[in-house]
Amino acid sequence: MIKKSKKVILAGVISTITAAYLFGSFAQAKDTSKPAPSTAKEKLEAYIKFTQILNVIEKEYVDEVNTTDLVDKALKGLMTNLDAHSTFMDTKSYKDLSVQTKGEFGGLGISVGMKDGVLTVIAPLDGTPAFRAGIKSGDIILKIDDKATLGMTIDDSVKIMRGKPKTNIVLTIIRKNEPKPLEIKITRDIIEIQSVYAKTIEGYDNSLYIHVTSFDQKVVKGVKKAIKEHNNTQGIILDMRNNPGGLLDQAIGLVDLFVDKGVIVSQKGKSKLENTEYKATKKDTDLKTPIVVLVNGGSASASEIVAGALQDFNRSIVVGEKTFGKGSVQIVMPIGKDEALKLTVARYYLPSGRTIQAEGVTPDIEVHFAKVEYLDDTISLKEKDLKKHLQSELEKIDTNKTKPVKVKNIDTNSSENNSTKINKTHISEKILNKDNQLKSALDILKALIITQKGK
Prior knowledge:
The protein is α/β, with parallel strands linked by helices and about 450 residues long. It has helices at about 5-15, 20-25, 40-60, 65-80, 90-100, 130-135, 155-160, 220-230, 250-255, 300-310, 385-400, 430, 435-455; strands at about 85-90, 105, 110-115, 120-125, 140-145, 145-150, 170-175, 180-185, 190, 195-200, 205-210, 235-240, 265-270, 275-280, 290-295, 315-320, 330-335, 340-350, 365, 425.
């Protein structure tokens, strides 16, 4: 910590030496659309300006201020204006990060990001309080309890949403196609996520459905286990919808299961130390099984790397909606013992060289989520039934034995017709018909399997 008296003296000395700079070049308008690297002179001027303003606040502001607090606030503002993911972490924030990385905490199970300058839900994680409360990908969070999110950083919003398990929180959200904001009450709970679910599909025993909800340290192991247990699999649907990302090594490992050579993903930054390529290996690689990848607007970061890499290698067909577009790399740099910077140092690039950041991954086949609707066929006749059927209908008319009957529509979603329990290892036709993206993915996979047989 720098003492106030010393800071004032230092500012006075420097400002006397460089007064000409302060009253000259600062007044000149500059084109900041494409900022060039600062010269030594410009850096000196900027440092002096900051020190002078700090000195003025200390001397003239109506209330007494603490210099350390002022500098911390300035740093937070500085980092926030770099990008949505860079931040200055004071002592409390740094401790919160440790809690987050070590394991269980009370929360909502919601992944958020900044999109177009507003706090937006990337995805609720399956089975969490946010998921059960009906939070959806793309929801804009307007308020957290009584606190407006405008101008709030991602880290600040996450701090507020975390809390003691079994306590309540209210999110005020704006949702597309809703005429007014929605208030959703959520009860915090311990967040425990199962990252990999493997299921068979009714009527398609040779197809394996693998749902990866997030990229924790067990993803590659879980996918390997699922494939091994279903050794008759002829095609895989890899569902990464609403997957907010996670560990990079797990994303690379997942792609490596299906690709045997080439750069899976690379990262490039200003520092050469951040320029890295992650390459595929030949060990235990499956190059034959057809794959369809499902994504949507809630697919971000690591899930975008997997989808984009498999797409670039022509190893899969990507189906669904355009992904979120989070392709930047952050590192945590300790500043002293109790503080740190979380700083964006690089961007990810897919095998083709394209970036994910703010672009996302565009599906090969775009399918928006909806239920599969079937029209009732009132007359369903085969050639073999035609003569017999018409004869029986003529007999009915001649004898006047029956009258036309109006058939009421049956609500298949009513409580009376919805007694089937969800099977965690099996996808029924009823569930399939509620998800046209999954249905489309299955149809495409069937075509790929048939094509594979012809090789």
